[in-house]
């Protein structure tokens, strides 16, 4: 049967009814409210709007931050603090007519890529999304890695640089602090100051730099913009080399807004993996761009929704 997937993001809430084949049959999106009550209200409204009048077996809320599965809450969410501590099943469940499941948003996106995107056809997948932060998810032997409390798979918060920049999580030198879209912005601003004569430096002197400026200037051949992306890819590769050794995935898929830059980031990440990871994992893994784009969250959440028997509502 169909299932509803809800991708609760820092700026928008997207909900969709998804068929077992991965087709989105109906979708809505709302801006993310900043208060806990309004947040619950909007999630309920979105689910009921898309689900009404359709055969739906279950719904899954994909939420940002560290999930405590036993209590169906998010305990820490730097990008959406309003969601912290809300007993989601208790508050949202009774307002919607379907069995409710809670998962981490990046784990859901990873599951979406595994079922319908860049990871379909493989059993072992590592997925990373480079946006404001870095989310991640691991599929091992066709099962989503959740850990003891449902908080596993937080790949963005592994330390890759002991004295590196401060991360949104409070730690220093997390992968997120060195290879996210935010990290690209910081690195680009620093590079612009150090190289005022470069295209990047001249643009920064006229106006604030946007993430896409760096990619655009790099494509036009600006060496400084290119080196900003290459340096980002290097840090990404340092993190990925560890994941390759630990999880031995067939595919590492990288998505998120920063993947506009594609191989301008991934080429140096692949180089770093070749240098740092070990055979046979290093020789097997294929590092590629994720294919579903922003829809991976809704699709993956729907595919993780459970029916009243506890089985995946979409099957598989
Ligand atoms: Zn962190």
Automatic annotation (TrEMBL):
<dbReference type="InterPro" id="IPR049874">
    <property type="entry name" value="ROK_cs"/>
</dbReference>
<dbReference type="InterPro" id="IPR000600">
    <property type="entry name" value="ROK"/>
</dbReference>
<dbReference type="Pfam" id="PF00480">
    <property type="entry name" value="ROK"/>
</dbReference>
<dbReference type="InterPro" id="IPR043129">
    <property type="entry name" value="ATPase_NBD"/>
</dbReference>
<protein>
    <submittedName>
        <fullName>ROK family protein</fullName>
    </submittedName>
</protein>
<comment type="similarity">
    <text>Belongs to the ROK (NagC/XylR) family.</text>
</comment>
